[in-house]
Design a protein that fits this description.
single chain; 5-stranded parallel sheet; alpha/beta; about 45% helix; 4 domains; elongated; Helicase, Ruva Protein, domain 3
């Protein structure tokens, strides 16, 4: 991360030195001082700064004029005005031009440091949010969001087959976004102006499946008082998305196979064959090869739908896509809920990055919605995250060699080691008093207890007789 750069402009050498010495208390910053406001104007043209502190009354060019020039060059540059001769008119003009604050000389060093820290932090957060937005624009594929290599492969396959009409099998764990892939395929096809018909094969009662898929004629069975078209006919000229294909009973699989081969259906109770022009995108979280071997899924149907296969990776294998998705969901759902929430605190984001997400993207979306509902601040903090995230985010196998482990595995191990030492240190400090330790750690007591259990810690081991 680059060091923040601060430009101090004042025609009095002593004041420049005081400002420089004071601002260096911020730590890892670079302070550039300039006594000539005209040369400062040139510096603003040639270099970039993260904060400008300038006097108002200076010969050659006033601080207000320098402020106006700075805002033209960098509209987001925070500018702090200094003056020994305050006036309402100058203050109003400075604020209108975009000065972030107005400090009267002489000032308290702590006041200058506090203001500078606040403005630098605000600029850093704004730059990070803008970076995230740019990343989201680059990493978004319709409603699919991701920059990781596995997701780029998914996007590449979608693009490659977008001009074709082949049937597709989307595979991935529950909650990875298989329907979003199907919708992206539909939107990029020549059928985009026709229907997209999603069907959850596992949600339709088995005794209704055939009539739902193929429709029926009047009198086909008791209660069939009028003709009804089925889902295949309804999707004619469009895309039929068969979610959880592996849930279809074996008898219906045979009828579906015939339809996909001949592109014709016959309604229940009907004699006439009806042509259907439908593209099929199927999805499953099951191991269909295993189902074929076990005899619960037809091999010929498997080969028929598996013309092109797209594998959606689980969220735990997508690295920093978690960060992009979390911000994406915050922006979407904050608007829906009418909440002014910008994102996650750094500590909360670390928890998200280290959690394994067994429920994948759907689970992350629900965690974001919960956080937005529960938070009273403009950021979602650790205190409103579900306990299961906080207590298991660093839960990876500990001990043994790190050889062969990737970045995320090693990071998770180090986080787990830190958690255990942090919890134990506080328990030692408070002699096993969990309530006091939790208060100092700034986490709910229940969460602290769960973290202790996760790391095999007992309060009694830290109490002195």
């Amino acid at each position: 991360m680059k060091r923040p750069r601060i430009l101090v402009v004042d025609d009095e050498e002593g004041m420049r030195e005081v400002c420089s010495d004071t601002l260096e208390q911020l730590g890892d910053v670079e302070v550039v001082t300039e006594g000539d406001p005209l040369r400062a104007k040139t510096l603003l043209d040639e270099q970039s700064f993260d904060l400008m502190v300038t006097d108002i009354r200076m010969p050659g060019l006033s601080g207000v004029e320098l402020l106006r020039h700075a805002r033209e060059r960098d509209p987001d540059l925070p500018v702090l005005m200094l003056t020994g001769f305050p006036s309402v008119e100058t203050a109003v003009e400075s604020m209108k031009l975009g000065a972030v604050d107005y400090v009267t000389k002489p000032f308290l060093p702590d006041e200058l440091v506090a203001n500078a820290r606040r403005f630098l932090e605000a600029r850093r957060l704004k730059e990070e949010n803008e970076l995230l937005r740019r990343q989201q624009r680059r990493g978004r594929f319709d409603e699919l969001v991701g920059e990781s290599e596995p997701m780029q492969r998914v996007f590449d396959v979608i693009e490659r087959i977008s001009g074709t009409d082949v049937d597709v099998l989307v595979r991935g764990e529950t909650g990875t976004g298989k329907e979003l892939v199907a919708r992206a395929l539909h939107q990029r096809s020549q059928r985009k102006d026709k229907r997209f018909v999603p069907v959850d094969c596992g949600a339709i009662p088995e005794n209704l499946l055939e009539s739902e898929f193929f429709g029926y004629e009047r009198g086909a069975f008791t209660g069939a008082n009028s003709r009804s078209i089925g889902l295949l006919e309804f999707a004619d000229e469009g895309t039929l998305f068969l979610d959880e294909l592996g849930e279809l009973p074996i008898l219906l699989q045979a009828k579906l196979l015939r339809t996909l081969q001949e592109r014709k259906i016959r309604r229940l109770g009907g004699k006439q064959e009806i042509s259907v022009d439908v593209r099929v995108v199927a999805a499953t979280a099951q191991d269909l090869e295993k189902a074929v071997k076990e005899g619960t899924f037809r091999q010929d149907l498997y080969f028929r739908v598996d013309v092109v296969q797209i594998h959606l990776p689980p969220l735990r294998e997508r690295g920093d896509d978690v960060r992009l998705l979390a911000q994406h969901f915050v922006e979407r759902h904050a608007r829906e809920m009418g909440k002014d929430v910008k994102g996650f605190t750094p500590e909360a984001m670390e928890v998200l990055l280290h959690y394994r997400w067994p429920g994948n993207v759907r689970e992350l979306q629900n965690v974001v919605r919960r956080g937005l509902a529960m938070t009273r601040d403009d950021e979602i903090g650790v205190d409103v995250l579900p306990d299961r995230l906080v207590t298991t985010s660093g839960d990876r196998p500990r001990g043994g060699s790190r050889k062969g482990l990737g970045f995320f595995e090693q990071r998770a191990q180090r986080v787990a080691a830190f958690e255990r030492e942090f919890l134990a240190s506080l328990l030692r400090s408070h002699k096993g008093d969990v309530a006091s330790a939790a208060k100092e750690a700034q986490v709910p007591r229940g969460t602290y207890y769960r973290l202790m259990k996760n790391h095999g810690l007992k309060a009694s081991d830290f109490r002195t007789g």
